[in-house]
């Protein structure tokens, strides 16, 4: 994403309109229940030593001709 681009959803619903998941829960109880604990919910967690489950000890992975290195720099993943 370039500096000048933005998500289309933020043009339709500005980030400032998001009031937190507990406010969504008030009107969307079943959707909240289905979302809670899902991969999408977990993807929004802060990346730290408790939430990152993958091997970030200089792990080298090649997939579809792309090689990536998973590592930590200080406490950053």
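-> sequence recovered:
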């Amino acid at each position: 994403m370039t500096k000048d681009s933005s998500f289309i959803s933020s043009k339709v619903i500005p980030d400032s309109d998001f009031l937190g998941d507990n406010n969504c829960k008030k009107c969307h109880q079943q959707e909240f229940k289905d979302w809670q604990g899902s991969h999408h919910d977990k993807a929004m967690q802060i990346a730290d030593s408790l939430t990152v489950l993958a091997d970030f000890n200089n792990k080298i992975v090649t997939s579809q001709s792309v090689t990536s290195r998973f590592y930590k720099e200080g406490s950053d993943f």
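The mean pLDDT is 83.
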